[in-house]
């Protein structure tokens, strides 16, 4: 008889691991919401597609992830391939992204200061990765001027925290690792960035990332509107809600901060590890679906203090089917934190594109924030949970800033572990 596994959460992490485990385990998925999708869910608003939290696209540098993903989709008929065309709005001037490759588009005064900064960095021959915090890394990599113009204000907006308190190690795989000669050559030759994982990307022809969720959810035993109130362990088995659901293994893809109130296992070390993570900081986002004038931009970043919003994602450019309720294109304006609707409406008037708001959504937890001991706390908790065959997976369970492809990659690692236990 197949062993059993319960997966809590039906976002991209929960559905990915469920699909993988389904080959060898009897899998049950429990979802507290009345719909699947987690952070990448989408809804139609009078025909227009609303990415409720940002705008999610797919690509990966990991061939194993690509092979697994395309096993469930027809890349040629169900997806569109697009080249990323991101811009930065600086003092009413559009500058290319990543900014270090488009220094030549800045003011002459900034260009002179940035070149001076870069030459000083090159002369010092220090390794930015040896810095212990995000702020120092950015300054050591790009110089004080680029930090002041873009990197500092933009990152302070989205993370809503002191960048000098953000440890570097958790961002190491997600950060640009600049090479000063490359930066100078790219600016002289005006070369376009192609090395970034999402410099080109795939996007579903219809229904955006919800299409991905819906496909992965097929043939899975998913219980919606199911609130997990307790998790117990007895006689080698795990039980949820006093035995309403039971299994050999449990994969938790929810918010790790809530586990201390759910897990009911008399284990002092486990209780201490659960308590240690219950106050981890995060930052939410307020998102506005808007109509917009035509543009060829895919992402527009807003680092300055002029706007409270930090970016516009032109999801209407990703697929024409996203605009079926309008004779204009659509986009999502993203604000850090919980903003009043009237304040967002007022700001939208000053953003480019003659924006007209169609719908609003607030997500209380979009970005996870690390402190110096966060990773240690999570790793300690993982070890304690694994004694009882409970595993953490996903952005808010593992407390890692995973994109879609990284969620799948982490699910693949966990699948390898659980498959060996079969």
In CATH, the topology of the largest domain is named Polyamine Oxidase, Chain A, domain 2
What is the mean predicted local confidence, pLDDT?
93
What structural category arises from helix and sheet content?
Answer: alpha/beta
CATH class placement of the largest domain: Alpha Beta
Share of residues in strands: 15-25%
Q: In this structure, how is the largest beta sheet organized?
A: 7 strands, mixed
CATH architecture of the largest domain: Alpha-Beta Complex
- Summed up, the helix count is 12
Cα-atom radius of gyration: 22 Å
| Structural domain count | 3
Can you summarize this structure?
With 422 residues, the protein is an alpha/beta fold.
Task: Describe the protein's architecture and organization.
With 422 residues, the protein is α/β, with parallel strands linked by helices. The protein folds into three domains: 3-34 and 224-281 and 370-420, 3-Layer(bba) Sandwich (FAD/NAD(P)-binding domain); 37-95 and 194-210 and 282-368, Protoporphyrinogen oxidase, mitochondrial, domain 2 (Polyamine Oxidase, Chain A, domain 2), CATH 3.90.660; 98-189, protoporphyrinogen ix oxidase, domain 3 (Orthogonal Bundle). It contains twelve helices and 19 strands. The strands form five sheets. It has a seven-stranded mixed beta sheet with strand order 7-6-15-16-17-14-18. A five-stranded parallel beta sheet has the order 9-2-1-13-19. A hairpin with a 2-residue loop joins strand 3 and strand 4 (48-51). The longest helix has 26 residues, at 134-159. It is globular and about 70 Å long.
